Amino acid sequence: MPSVVLIAEELAPSAIDVLAGHYEVRQVDGTDRAALLAQVAGADALIVRSATQVDAEVLTAGTGLRVVARAGVGLDNVDIAAATARGVLVVNAPTSNIVSAAEQAIALLLATARHTATATASLKGGRWQRSRFVGVEVQGKTVGVVGLGRIGVLFAQRMAAFGTRLIAYDPYIQPARAAQLGVRLVGLDELLRESDFISVHLPRTPETVGLIGEKELGLVRPGVRIVNAARGGLIDEEALATALREGRVAGAGLDVFVTEPTTESPLFGFDNVVVTPHLGASTAEAQDKAGLSVARSVKLALDGEFVPDA
Ligand code: MLT
Questions:
Q1: Ligand 1 contacts CB of residue 115 (under 6 A)
Q2: Ligand 1 atom nearest to CA at 256
Q3: What does the CA dihedral 203, 209, 213, 216 come to, rounded to 10 degrees?
Q4: What are the φ/ψ torsions at residue 83 (nearest 5 degrees)?
Q5: Beta-strand pair 4-7/45-48
Q6: 73 lines ligand 1 (CB under 6 A)
Q7: Which of 98, 104, 278 to mutate for ligand 1's pocket (most ligand atoms within 8 Å of CB)?
Q8: Per residue in 179-226, pLDDT tens?
Q9: pTM for this model (two decimals)
Q10: What number does the ligand 1 atom closest to the CA of 281 have?
Q11: Are 182 and 127 in contact (CB under 8 A)?
Q12: Exposure winner among 4, 19, 111, 225, fewest CB in 10 A?
């Protein structure tokens, strides 16, 4: 009997082909809890992206599971401790979509600077409104990067080409490394006070949830534009809505939300908020890389071989 690989979210066809050559591949909608629990019972491997919650209940139902693979960077939707306790290996594809995520943050930043989404909706709605959509240049502005990990670094390197002044908050990075990147390390309060644009590039952990809340948004430079293409909940949504309403924050570009999927948010009512449904990793290139990386790791794990860091 071939091992069963259960794919719970969209995966690149190239990766499915690789897996189908060796295993029985089954598919399920990971957001359909009942279906997931039923299907995982017969699976040796489970592959997810960000929408499927792989918690203790799923891991308990998956009595034959040997490996859970996350076709992406973050592992916040996988209960690693529960998996480890059951001897289930957890793998991800930590570099697969970092370029795509950084590019998405830049797209959102530029869209907030130039009202791209609202102007599109206005023109397609039959209105030619030039004076309504006067934006700001990015050149010469201070860009605050919260989190200088892999994605934050790619974002900063690209923003440098726009002629920005880069500052960053990251308690874990060495000042020399930041200096090499042309980025000045500052405390979070200083970053909030000085930045014209802020982009968040952090994983979702108990330490980072709500990192930018009411108090922090009270410190920002008036007119700041804020981008989050990392994880929902890092910026408190209610506090952000209040800051937008009061005009302290001039715009926001959001790819991620505290609850996903969602079609409702207090933030969707603002003209100066551009939103996308968690598309940071949704490029052909990133999906190929993520899919092939986890397909490789799943194969090694099911073959009982050592799985190196991807
Ligand atoms: C990631 O963590 O890499 C992304 O959020 C993956 C995804 O798009 O599901």
A1: no
A2: 5
A3: -50
A4: -65, -50
A5: parallel
A6: yes
A7: 278
A8: 999 999 999 999 999 999 999 999 999 999 999 999 999 999 999 999
A9: 0.94
A10: 8
A11: no
A12: 4
